[in-house]
């Protein structure tokens, strides 16, 4: 794991690791970053503390206090990249609680 390289944070290697994309690690959005463990996504803060346990099949960063999550997801080729298509979408707040649309 390379967490110690992320934004100069000195975190234990057993902490959550950020998602790696073609252009580098996933960044922080509203103080939280996504990570993946055992095929599920969650969030951790800048100290490395898991704030939302990994329980989502897919999750997007936090804009305006809510993150969109999906289930029944698959990666679909989209030119030189891939996009995620999910059969069901929802939103959670920064504490991981479901939010009505």
Overview of the structural elements:
- 0% of the residues lie in helices and 52% in strands.
- The protein is mostly beta strands and 101 residues long.
- Strands 6-7-8-9 form a four-stranded antiparallel β-sheet, with no helix packed on it. It has a three-stranded antiparallel β-sheet with strand order 3-4-5, with no helix packed on it.
- A hairpin with a 2-residue loop joins strand 3 (32-37) and strand 4 (40-45).
- The termini are far apart.
- Mean pLDDT is 81; it is low at 1-14.
Strand order of the largest sheet: 6-7-8-9
Alpha-carbon distance between the two ends: 36 Å
Overall spatial form: globular
Number of strands: 9
As a whole number of angstroms, the C-alpha radius of gyration is 14 Å
Share in helix: under 10%
What descriptors fit this protein?
four-stranded antiparallel β-sheet; disordered N terminus; 9 strands; 101 residues; 0% helix; three-stranded antiparallel β-sheet; mainly beta
Secondary structure layout plus pairing:
Layout: E1 20-21, E2 24-25, E3 32-37, E4 40-45, E5 50-56, E6 58-59, E7 66-78, E8 81-93, E9 98-99
Give a nutshell description of this structure.
The protein has no helices and nine strands. It has 101 residues and is mainly β.
């Amino acid at each position: 794991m390379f967490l110690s390289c992320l934004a100069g944070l000195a975190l234990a290697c057993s902490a959550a690791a950020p998602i790696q994309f073609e252009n580098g690690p996933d960044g922080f959005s509203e103080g939280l970053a996504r990570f993946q463990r055992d095929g599920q996504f969650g969030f951790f803060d800048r100290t490395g503390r898991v704030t939302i346990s990994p329980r989502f099949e897919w999750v997007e960063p936090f804009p305006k206090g809510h993150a969109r999550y999906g289930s029944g997801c698959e990666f679909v080729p989209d030119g030189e990249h891939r996009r995620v298509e999910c059969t069901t979408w929802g939103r959670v707040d920064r504490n991981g609680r479901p939010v009505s649309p």
